[in-house]
Amino acid sequence: MLQPTSHGAVTDSVRPPEFSRAEHARVLATTAAGSVVVGYAAVAALLALVSSTAAHASFSTTGVLAAAAPGWLVAHHIPVRFDGGQLGVLPLLPTALVMLLVSRAAAGAADRLGLFEPLQARSVVFTISGAHAVVGGLIAFLMGEAGPVRATPAVAFFGCAAVSGVAAVAGVAQRCGLVEVLFDRVDPVARRGLRAGALALFALAAAGALLLAVGLATSWPTTSALFDQGGGTVGSGLGIWLLCLGYLPNAVVGAMSLTTGAGFSLGAVMVSPTAFSGGPVPAIPLLAALPEQQLGLLPAVFALPGAIGVLVGLALRTAAKSPATRVRAVLVAAMTAGVGMLVLAAVAGGNLGSGAFTPVTVPAGLAAVLTLAWIGLPGALVAWLAGPRPAAPPAPVQPPVVVAAEADEDDEDDEDDEVEYEEDAEELEEVAEEEEDDFDEPDGEPDREPAAPEDDEARDDPPLADKPD
């Protein structure tokens, strides 16, 4: 016999897989350990490639694995110290690659465990960030204070936890509904402002990259000469190329700050659209894009953030019918781009040893404020003027003729009723007066009682005094 089936019930094919606590913990532990091991192996493989191709470098597996420990911390954006000072200007490209690796690992764990609720993402995020924090603090502790490269254990612990935690949240945000929860808490106008702000930040980064490419192209002879100074071998050229590639995002952030007007400084060298101060710079081909003197056309870079602000205003001109609401969307976009610029500028600079090239400064606060102004002011003006205008209030509708005629008829009926009432009142008054006249005496004599009738005999009889005895 066929077993009956219940229509509309949730089948096992659409339910998320159910795991026991042991299996759940095993998946999380495997994911966290795998992200740490894969990242460490990637750093070790890169160092092995550089040392194997260098001309005078000695290659050993133990030495590469030992050198990968501080490299793993640098990839997590943890400052390291050495006898010559502190390396605080850390390359952003390895940090971005590590965050991408952790994000993919967190997303894979969420898929394997069938997580789909926001609160379920806590286990993945806490496990991955905790594993990276413990490994980072342990590496900094084992490096000690007497080694050639040192790091602070507390800074390594919390720094690794922060970097890996942000990456893990980004990995599970879409799968566990964190993005929907965030967007559900804001109105559609602010949602469009957030998207426009993210696009504005991306456009500002593209403008900085374009400015950097123009600088490298105009100074290509200097760039080529700096590559040749490295020794001319494959290993040295590869090392310089990897160094420039790792610091390429830092240079783009510096160019972004330059386009906004905040500029940047490298030791005694200070570059901005309106001011310039020369000095020595490291012999790195990437720095050949720096101008050697104040350029008259450098203030023209202000057209880039201004154009981005105009584009933001055009993109948000249809965000709402009210001009004030459109301006609010532009302000949300400007604040989003400003906060993004603040974070990027804060992590792009730092100390560079103890020589003449330190510190490398990208003024984060000034760059963020200028970014907000470049996006907000032209964007608000364009959104206010180019958007739809609110419709004028409709003219008052005149009452139809039929209604007016009915009203006139009602007024005439009321007047007729009043006339009839007055005529009735006059008739009643006349009737009352006639009745009063019937009761009154003529000629105005006073009213008296009628005399009683007398007998004939009484009339004929004289008075008693006149009668004979």
From TrEMBL:
Keywords, comma-separated and alphabetical: Membrane, Transmembrane, Transmembrane helix
Pfam families the record matches: DUF6350
Record's compositionally biased regions (Acidic residues): 406-444
Transmembrane domains' residue ranges: 27-50, 57-75, 87-107, 119-142, 154-173, 194-217, 229-248, 255-276, 296-317, 329-352, 364-386
Biased composition (Basic and acidic residues): 460-469
Region (Disordered): 404-469
Protein name, as recorded: Uncharacterized protein
Source organism of the structure: Saccharothrix coeruleofusca
Listed InterPro entries: DUF6350
